[in-house]
Write a structure and sequence with these properties.
Elements lengths: L1 H7 L3 H8 L11 H17 L5 H11 L9 H10 L29 E10 L5 E8 L6 E8 L5 H16 L8 E5 L3 H4 L1 H11 L1 E5 L7
Parallel strand pairs: 1-4, 4-5
Antiparallel strand pairs: 1-2, 2-3
Helix pairs in contact: 3-4, 3-5, 4-5, 6-8
Protein name: HTH-like domain-containing protein
Organism: Roseivivax sediminis
């Protein structure tokens, strides 16, 4: 089989699946499916014009979650590309130098929520600092805070955590333990913040080191 696979230029696993009849046939493209999804995608893009196709696909599948076949992100990309809603800007090559650029992936939504922060300097020299919480599965920002001329405080982080739990679960406490991933910044590691997260929200605060890449 190895010689045949090398001669045909295909993977041995693919050849083995075809020989055993376990390979799934490629599904045909149905334009009618795009027509059904188009108005939903248009509404989501209008509400969140800065979102890419993966985030739009995540929101779309959340709406279709009950009794419907989930939309493939490639299909969403095809529709958004036809709508001229896809960004094609310059993408940096190589790993980012920012310590807040982390890739945490979970098998299902609501299992983990990484946090992050950033800052920018305005033309008048004012510094705007922001913090946010992201759903680790859907990669959607579900809560955020911005502060001008000051730092993000522990109170800001606690309010942000509460809003994230309300946005994701519709209540004041998560139904199961949810990882809350953050760096070692004092607003996140403060005793009041970690106690509030565990005792009142059902969150499990976890820290990543500066060199962590997962």
């Amino acid at each position: 089989m190895k010689v045949v696979a090398e001669t045909l230029g295909v993977a041995r696993s693919n050849l083995h699946a075809r020989m055993n009849g376990s390979a799934k046939p490629r599904q045909r493209y149905h334009k009618a499916q795009d027509a059904a999804l188009l108005p939903l995608i248009e509404a989501l893009v209008a509400a969140r014009p800065t979102y890419g196709y993966r985030r739009i696909a995540a929101l779309l599948n959340r709406r279709l979650r009950v009794g419907a076949t989930p939309a493939n992100h490639k299909g969403v990309y095809r529709i958004m590309q036809a709508m001229a809603c896809c960004w094609h800007g310059h993408m940096p090559s190589g790993p980012s130098a920012s310590t807040t650029e982390r890739s945490w992936r979970y098998a299902r939504t609501s299992d983990g929520a990484p946090t992050g922060s950033s800052s920018l300097t305005c033309w008048n020299k004012d510094i705007i600092r922001g913090a946010f919480i992201i759903d680790a599965h859907d990669r959607e920002i579900i809560s955020w805070r911005t502060v001008a001329g000051a730092g993000i405080s522990g109170s800001d982080v606690r309010d942000m955590m509460l809003e994230a739990v309300e946005a994701r679960f519709g209540g004041y406490r998560a139904p199961h333990s949810v990882d809350m991933l953050s760096d070692n910044g004092s607003p996140y590691t403060a005793h009041d913040t970690r106690t509030f997260a565990r005792r009142h929200l059902g969150l499990a605060p976890l820290k990543w080191s500066v060199g962590t890449q997962t």
